[in-house]
Design brief:
By secondary structure, the chain is α+β, with helices and mostly antiparallel strands. The chain has eight helices and 21 strands. The protein starts with 11 loop residues before the first strand and ends in a 6-residue tail after the last strand.
Length: about 375
């Protein structure tokens, strides 16, 4: 969107300080403290019931916190009504007015703000151009596809140029292919307008694709707040390791071996991870992602961590083949191999075959028990 750009008065657009929300005796949000930076694409990621939507609704003014502080661009808005906050929200339902044209849907907020005439036409045109819907002005919402309706809802939310745009699972009603396309479009639009986006989703792929930073939420708080790469490569709790991608967690007796953490498995095998990966704590584990593992013939030599096992399942998934390997004591691990050099199914490992699993210690990670942030 061209034209005026609102001056930024703070590096932090949204600040939450020890925000708690109770519904009766149930704690929906449990003392969250976080800052969302100016121009950031920030995501609240987690399963149903984790408190992410309640947190978004408190930022938007649709819910009031039981305690804590909410600031928008340095101003205390904790108890300010939604219509007095410089934010707009895009919901999963889109909430378009069925009797209005696309032009009038997008212009609705401008007209309510007292803007008239050519200024309305210009700004609606800019918003529709941004979401690539020029030429759709005279259509009604019933004449649009789901993806087009989502774009109209986004244009309507952006046309007033809010300081912060809140998005509550806006792609949830779309099919998988369209969700992926719209995810790319959302990130493009956010970069073009430079507005802070706070996005809520339970879909970790969506979050990883679009976000600058992600708060992984569980039971009313976030367990880790970091960029997508850090969350994936260096999760700090069991919950984050399992919710963001697939993980193999190896648990047993924790020890230390020079510069490495060690876990002695019930089978007696020992696996290692460098101490610079973090603090394993008491009751922690060493983890490794399925694609970091390599399958070898049992007699092949290898360096680093090694476990022997038997292939119990093989799943061909197109771009990769996924194996389930059972080790000593019933331990099961997932292994993902890219199908780069494979041309037929006969090239895969077969159930019942003995294999060795190997990986470099520095390709693992260490996690502790789930905890409050």
């Amino acid at each position: 969107m061209s034209a005026e750009v609102k001056p930024r008065v703070a590096d932090v657009d949204v600040r939450l300080v020890n925000v708690t929300k109770m519904f009766g005796d149930q704690t929906a949000v449990d003392g969250i403290t976080l800052d969302v930076s100016d121009g950031e694409f920030f995501t609240l990621l987690g399963p149903s019931g984790c408190g992410k939507t309640t947190t978004l609704r408190m930022i938007g003014g649709f819910e009031q916190p039981t305690s804590g502080l909410i600031e928008l661009k340095g101003e205390d808005v904790t108890f300010l009504p939604a219509h007095e906050r410089d934010v707009n929200t895009v919901f999963q339902s889109y909430a378009l007015f069925p009797h209005l044209t696309i032009f009038e849907n997008v212009a609705f907020g401008l007209r309510r703000s007292g803007i008239k005439g050519d200024e309305v036409t210009r700004r609606v045109g800019e918003a529709l151009e941004l979401v690539q819907l020029i030429g759709y002005e005279k259509r009604k919402p019933a004449q649009l596809s789901g993806g087009q309706a989502q774009r109209v809802a986004l244009a309507r939310a952006l046309v007033n140029r809010p300081a912060v745009l809140l998005l509550d699972e806006p792609l949830g009603a779309l099919d998988l292919k369209l969700r992926k396309q719209m995810g790319i479009e959302l990130k493009r639009i956010q970069r073009e307008v430079g507005i802070t986006f706070i996005y809520v989703t339970h879909d970790q792929e969506e979050a990883m694709t679009m976000s600058d930073r992600i708060a992984v939420m569980n039971k009313g708080h976030y367990e880790q707040l970091a960029g997508p790469e850090t969350l994936y490569e260096r999760p700090t709790t069991r919950f984050v390791a399992s919710f963001v991608g697939a993980s193999n967690l190896l648990e047993g007796k924790i020890g230390s071996d020079g510069e490495s953490w060690t876990v002695t498995l019930p089978s007696g095998d020992v696996v290692r991870a460098p101490k610079n990966l973090g603090d394993i704590g008491t009751g922690g584990a060493i983890g490794v992602r399925p694609e970091k593992l390599t399958l070898l013939e049992p007699g092949q030599e290898s360096k680093g961590n090694r476990l022997d096992g038997t292939v119990v399942d093989t799943s061909y998934l197109g771009v990769l083949t996924q194996y389930t390997v059972e080790g000593a004591g019933g331990l099961r691990l997932l292994v993902s191999e890219q199908n780069v050099d494979r041309t037929t199914r006969s090239d895969t490992w077969r159930p019942g075959e003995r294999v060795a699993l190997t990986w470099k210690p520095e390709h693992g990670f260490v996690v502790g028990d789930s905890k409050s942030a």
